[in-house]
Write a structure and sequence with these properties.
The chain contains 6 helices and 5 strands, in the order βαβαβαβαβαα. With about 140 residues, the chain is α/β, with parallel strands linked by helices. The chain has one domain: Rossmann fold. The protein has a 5-stranded parallel sheet with strand order 2-1-3-4-5, with helices on both faces.
């Protein structure tokens, strides 16, 4: 069986490295992006099975992609519809959790993340996405 691929989108390279060190031994291939527009191009190129997405990125020149814009884009493109997105943020959970779920994320986790909880949620989210009839009823 092919290893499932996870795209980690976070502007902090230490967080990307720490998550990779959790995911690779658990049997996942990992690709990463440091900001929103890079997340879009990486998702199109790599076709991950799941995205772990931070919400806030430093502003750059041109269009500023935050995590909510990334989720909205993914839902509009046929090749990424149904792709599970787990938001992992250090932001105010009371402010962002409901908005992230409403935007289309399958879950919201607060940093720092519990490793066991993260791995269980990834496994469940990928399994649910692989069964579209189940996801449509949810």
């Amino acid at each position: 069986m092919n290893r499932q691929k996870i795209l980690i989108v976070d502007d902090d390279p230490v967080i990307v490295k720490a998550m990779s060190l959790k995911l690779v031994p658990a049997g996942y291939d990992v690709v990463s992006a440091g900001e929103g527009s890079e997340a879009i191009s990486t998702a199109r190129k790599e076709k991950p099975d799941l995205i772990l997405l931070d919400l806030n990125f430093p502003a750059d020149v041109g269009l500023h992609w935050d995590g909510f814009k990334v989720i909205a884009w993914l839902q509009r493109v046929d090749e990424s519809k149904g792709l599970p997105v787990i938001v992992i943020s250090g932001g105010d959970a009371a402010k962002f959790k409901a908005r992230a779920i409403q935007a289309g994320a399958v879950a919201y986790l607060q940093k720092p993340v519990n490793n066991d909880e993260l791995l269980a949620l990834i496994k469940q989210s990928i399994a649910t996405a692989a069964r579209p009839e189940t996801a449509q009823r949810a």
